[in-house]
């Protein structure tokens, strides 16, 4: 929308608004330095402006939902795992599942919960190392392999979905005991 026309007299002229900026440029800094003499006295007839400098940004403290808290939580979990006394009589099961699809993850969690509930003292770990692509494998650490579906299964992961997970859990429990 266009501004209103002023009356012909020119009596109602808008007053210019002066705004002070908190922004400090290099040229402004030079002006303030040249206005003051080396001994600290002001130069004759010079006017200096006091400019407030922007304060440096502060780091926010790590909160429970921030990255710092997640890192601290992972560190605590690693310490707890290291603190656990490794008993050679307790079976250790490793489940390696691909992260490509949630179908692998849900089956791995189902096996983990089933084994931990049925066998007292069993330690089940999911993906201790980076998993292979299209892999679903359940094995005893440093020993026997219970299920191994490799060869980079492609969608729709028919060999894995054909498994009855309850039967698989029962077979593993029998082999462990």
From TrEMBL:
Compositional bias ranges of the Acidic residues kind: 77-86
A GO-annotated cellular component: Golgi apparatus
Family annotation (PANTHER family): SELENIUM BINDING PROTEIN (PTHR33638:SF6), SELENOPROTEIN H (PTHR33638)
Keywords: Redox-active center
Recorded superkingdom: Eukaryota
Compositionally skewed regions (Basic and acidic residues) per UniProt: 1-15
UniProt KW Cell division keyword: no
Stretches the record annotates as Disordered: 1-88
Regions crossing the membrane: none
Organism: Brassica campestris
UniProt name for this protein: Selenoprotein H
């Amino acid at each position: 929308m266009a501004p209103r026309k002023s009356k012909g007299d020119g009596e109602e002229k808008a007053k210019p608004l002066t705004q002070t900026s908190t922004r400090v440029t290099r040229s402004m800094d030079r002006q303030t330095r040249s206005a003051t003499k080396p001994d600290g006295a002001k130069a004759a007839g010079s006017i200096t402006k006091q400019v407030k400098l922007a304060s440096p940004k502060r780091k926010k403290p790590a909160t429970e939902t921030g990255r710092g808290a997640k890192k601290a939580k992972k560190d605590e979990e690693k310490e707890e795992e290291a603190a656990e006394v490794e008993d050679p009589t307790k079976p250790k099961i490793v489940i390696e599942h691909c992260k490509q699809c949630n179908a692998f993850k849900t089956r791995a969690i189902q096996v983990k919960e089933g084994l931990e509930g049925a066998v007292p003292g069993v330690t089940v770990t999911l993906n201790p190392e980076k998993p292979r692509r299209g892999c679903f494998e359940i094995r005893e650490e440093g020993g026997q392999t219970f299920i191994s579906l490799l060869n980079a299964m492609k969608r729709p992961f028919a060999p894995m979905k054909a498994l009855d997970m309850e039967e698989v859990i029962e077979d593993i429990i029998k082999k462990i005991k």
